[in-house]
Amino acid sequence: MVIVLKPHASKQRIEELVYEIENEGLTVERVVGSDFTILGLVGDTSTINIDRMKVNEIVHKVMRIQEPFKRANRLFHPKSSVIKVGDREFGGGKIGVIAGPCSVESEEQIVTIAKKVKAAGATFLRGGAFKPRTSPYSFQGLGYEGLELLRIAREETGLPIVSEILSENMVDRFVRDVDIIQVGARNMQNFMLLKELGKTRNPILLKRGLSATIEEWLMSAEYIMSEGNTNIILCERGIRTFEKYTRNTLDISAVPAIKRMSHLPVIVDPSHATGMGWMVMPMARAAVAADADGIMIEVHNDPEHALSDGNQSITPEEFNELMNSLRIISGAVGRRI
Ligand code: PEP
Ligand code: MN
Fold first, then answer.
1. For residue 308, which ligand has an atom nearest its CA?
2. Close Cβ partners of 203 (under 8 Å, ≥ 6 residues apart)
3. Domain shared by 179 and 127, yes or no
4. Do 196 and 260 reside in the same domain of the chain?
5. CATH code, domain with 38
6. Which of 9, 13, 59, 130 has the most CB atoms lying inside 10 A of its own CB?
7. Pair 52, 181 in one domain
8. Residues 259 and 164 in one domain
9. Which of 206, 236, 272, 312 to mutate to test the pocket of ligand 1 (most atoms within 8 A of CB)?
10. Candidates 178, 182, 267: which one to mutate for ligand 1, based on the most atoms within 8 Å of Cβ?
């Protein structure tokens, strides 16, 4: 339930109302706007007498939130959230660009790619240290050594780093070493992990599950938010459909859907969505044209010999070409890149 208060409601009357609601065992989240205040009620609101609430002299309007996600709901927070990562952000006027290899392979590899993607205009460096591979016999990543190499690449380039976490026991280390903690598609419903990440204040990149509906994806965001961490960036990375030509089916329509349903920023990963390097450019362009708040692109200096996902990786030169076209497209939708 959302209660929109009248402008200029006095502080004391607001406190009295909040006290009354909290006495019913509910949690009240306040969103203070420039000319309105919203109280978001979380919990079992069936005990709230809506009619009585509506006649309260400081109440403008009362709305029930039908959807199961509350804190992630745009009704709860009408203004789009801007997620800050140091001096950069997602959800504002500038489109965030995360680029880098699927996996961190060596210091030379990650530093070389970091420098190249930075020169082309990337604002974040990605690299998997722990890889959730379909086969246990495939390259599993360098582990904590990979995080160490990412740290070196960050020092060399100034690019904040994005890397995927696999389990709860990694949280402390990731909080310390990683700027944006990525939750991969396979872990989107690892609720224990989501709750632990909810206790941190790190920005979380929450990828859409392989077969998750938009609502299930937002419920995963809700798990993180319910523990207090509202710094969430959603990432559409393709879903499983009957189509086998592409690795997944990129659901571009998820971008406007998320923007309507939620205040959280949403970015697109065309690399995992398509699985083919030659499709990454057109799909990244489509994502920016559809008003995505960012993109995540796998870039490798030697895709043929990449230890994972070489097929869908583009070269730094192709990435540079992509960035040039995205400068034009972002301008057409009122953004900068
Ligand atoms: C990744 O980004 O490295 C990755 C494994 O992606 P996803 O979780 O979307 O498959
Ligand atoms: Mn990959």
1. 2
2. 83, 84, 85, 90, 179, 180, 181, 231, 232, 233
3. yes
4. yes
5. 3.30.70.1140
6. 130
7. no
8. yes
9. 272
10. 182
Domain that holds residue 154: 83-332
Indicate the pTM of the whole model.
0.96
Print pLDDT tens along the chain (337 aa). 999 999 888 999 999 999 999 999 999 999 888 778 999 999 888 888 899 999 999 999 999 998 999 999 999 999 999 999 999 999 999 999 999 999 999 999 999 999 999 999 999 999 999 999 999 999 999 999 999 999 999 999 999 999 999 999 999 999 999 999 999 999 999 999 999 999 999 999 999 999 999 999 999 999 999 999 999 999 999 999 999 999 999 999 999 999 999 999 999 999 999 999 999 999 999 999 999 999 999 999 999 999 999 999 999 999 999 999 999 999 999 999 9
Residue 69 lies in a domain: no
Does 185 contact ligand 1 (Cβ within 6 A)?
yes
> What gap in Å lies between CA 19 and CA 222, rounded to an integer?
24
Residue the block writes with tokens 């699985």: 275
| Closest listed residue to residue 147, CA positions, set 158, 162, 134 | 162
In short, whether 162's Cβ falls inside 6 Å of ligand 1 is no
Whether residue 207 has its Cβ less than 6 Å from ligand 1: yes
